Amino acid sequence: MVEKERLSLAFLEQKIIELLNKLKGNHLNLARFQEENEYLKAKNVELDEKLTSVLEENKSLKVANNLLGSNEGTQETKSKINSLIKEVENCIQQVSEMN
Q1: Residue 88 lies inside a defined structural domain of this protein
Q2: How far is CA 26 from CA 8, 31, 71, in A?
Q3: What is the pTM for the complete model shown?
């Protein structure tokens, strides 16, 4: 009977050791995944900023292309120019009111 209890105790100890090793492995994996997640978040922000920059550059190139005589997007270019003219007129009016 005592021998059987010793074997049961040894078996339980072995299982506890295995579970602790798995727990340690899970903690290591969790730390690695958290680091990877932070890296990917930073990379995502970087790529979002780059995308925004490229989209703005694309808009500018479209406007420049239209000003050089391309027929594509002339309405968009005219709209942009009118918007800029209105902004300039607004600024002139505000400066005039200051004097």
Answers
A1: no
A2: 27, 9, 61
A3: 0.50
